[in-house]
Description:
Elements: H1 2-25, E1 32-38, E2 44-48, E3 54-55, H2 58-67, E4 78-79, H3 83-100, H4 104-119, E5 127-134, E6 140-147, H5 151-161, H6 164-171
Antiparallel strand pairs: 1-2, 3-4, 5-6
Amino acid sequence: MIIQRHTTAVVNIFIFWIFVSLFCASKQDCVWYGVCNTDALNHNQYCSYNGTPKEMPEDGLKLLTERCSFLLQAEAKNFCCDVDQVKILNENIKLAAAILERCPSCMTNLARHICELTCSPNQSKFSKAAGTKTNDKGDLYVTSLDLHVTEEYINRTYKSCSQVGHSLKLLF
């Protein structure tokens, strides 16, 4: 009887250990990390990466403060982007800012969206690599992405930017 209880306890612990190991091993928070390709239109394409966020070096953290400082709350240092992606992100936001900074709420929402999309340590909660290709070096890069956003988010974002088009008409 004692042997049977001991064996049952060992089996239960073993099954529990396997379950925990599989759960921890399958934790995937990122869908991409790094730049692997540039297409014919000179658009950067990010490396497919199904893993946990990686630590951002100090120069990358400094770059994140330019437009994505909200990501650094609670002194976060692990992200699903590298320094090159943050540089690209800042340049893209700077281009949009030329038009959208007249509407602070729209600009804030757009910057937040781009920052989260590019670097969030929880990318897999709202996005999935829908298409990938392999570059000349054999690296897999993302060609299309499925985003999961709520109708409320879409409506609020639209509302925050809906007057930008009207203000542009007044300029021309």
